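queue> pop job 88
queue> type: inverse folding (structure -> sequence)
queue> payload:
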C-alpha cells in the first residue's frame, strides 16, 4: 500500500530525515518508534504531504505521490491525525467531527452512518456531541481527533503520538479502539509513538529511528524483546506493564 524509498527531508539546512525507507502493507499496523528528536513526526508529516521532501520517493498503491499536497492525499484515502490533536476549540464535538468529511463526497445518509460509527467506537463522544471541544479532557480531545480523521473514510490512517499526555487508562482505551479499527474494519495504520510497549502490543511490525535514520526494524514481538531497542534507542519510557488493552 505505502512504499517510502530513500526519503530525505530538511528543516532549513538541517537534514531531519536521512535516506529513510519503510513499507506498509494493507491491513497492517506498523509502528515508528524512537526517542524525542529522532525524526518520527517529520517522517509522518512528509508522507502526509505537510512537508516537501528534498529527495526520495513516496508511493501509494503504486502511484508516485512524492510531491502531492496533503489535500490530494486525503482524496486518495491517506489521513493524518496530527500530534496534539489540533481541534477547533470553539466548535462542538460534532462540528469538529463533521469537518473531517469536508473534502469527501459524502451524502447525508452516509455522513450520519459515519457519525454513529464513531459514537459507537467512543461512546463518551456521543454523550458530549453538543459540548465545546475546548471543554473536553485530553483523552476526549484525542478521541475527537481520531474520529475526525475517520470521517474522511481513510484507507491508510497515520497517527502522530496518540497517547501523548494521556493517563494510562485513557491510553489503553485509545489503543483498544485502534486495534478494533484494524481487526474489525481492516483499517491500515501507521503509528508514531513513544510508548514502545503500548505501540508494539498492537503492531505487526515496527521501525526504530535515531537521528533521522532507521536503525532497526522487525516484527513487533521481536522488537519488544530486544534489549537494545529499550536501552540504546528508546530509553525506559513510560511504564505500561499494568495496562491491558485486551477486549
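queue> result:
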Amino acid at each position: 500500500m505505502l512504499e517510502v524509498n530513500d526519503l530525505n527531508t530538511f528543516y532549513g539546512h538541517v537534514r531531519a530525515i536521512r535516506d529513510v525507507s519503510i513499507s506498509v502493507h494493507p491491513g497492517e499496523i506498523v509502528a515508528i518508534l524512537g526517542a524525542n528528536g529522532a525524526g518520527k513526526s517529520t517522517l509522518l508529516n512528509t508522507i502526509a504531504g505537510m512537508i516537501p521532501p528534498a529527495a526520495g520517493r513516496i508511493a501509494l498503491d503504486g502511484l508516485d505521490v512524492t510531491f502531492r499536497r496533503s489535500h490530494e492525499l486525503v482524496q486518495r484515502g491517506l489521513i493524518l491525525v496530527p500530534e496534539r490533536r489540533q481541534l477547533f476549540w470553539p466548535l462542538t464535538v460534532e462540528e469538529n467531527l463533521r469537518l473531517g468529511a469536508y473534502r469527501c463526497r459524502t451524502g447525508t445518509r452516509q455522513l450520519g452512518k459515519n457519525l454513529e460509527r464513531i459514537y459507537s467506537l467512543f461512546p463518551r463522544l456521543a454523550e458530549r456531541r453538543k459540548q465545546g471541544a475546548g471543554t473536553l479532557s485530553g483523552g476526549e480531545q484525542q478521541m475527537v481527533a481520531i474520529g475526525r480523521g475517520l470521517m474522511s473514510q481513510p484507507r491508510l490512517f497515520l497517527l502522530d503520538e496518540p497517547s501523548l499526555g494521556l493517563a494510562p487508562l485513557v491510553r489503553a482505551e485509545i489503543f483498544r479502539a485502534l486495534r478494533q479499527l484494524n481487526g474489525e474494519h481492516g483499517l491500515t495504520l501507521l503509528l508514531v509513538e513513544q510508548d514502545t510497549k503500548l505501540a508494539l502490543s498492537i503492531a505487526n511490525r515496527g521501525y526504530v529511528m535515531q537521528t533521522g535514520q532507521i536503525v532497526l526494524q522487525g516484527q513487533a514481538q521481536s522488537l519488544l524483546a530486544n534489549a537494545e531497542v529499550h536501552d540504546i534507542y528508546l530509553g525506559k519510557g513510560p511504564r505500561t506493564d499494568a495496562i491491558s488493552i485486551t477486549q
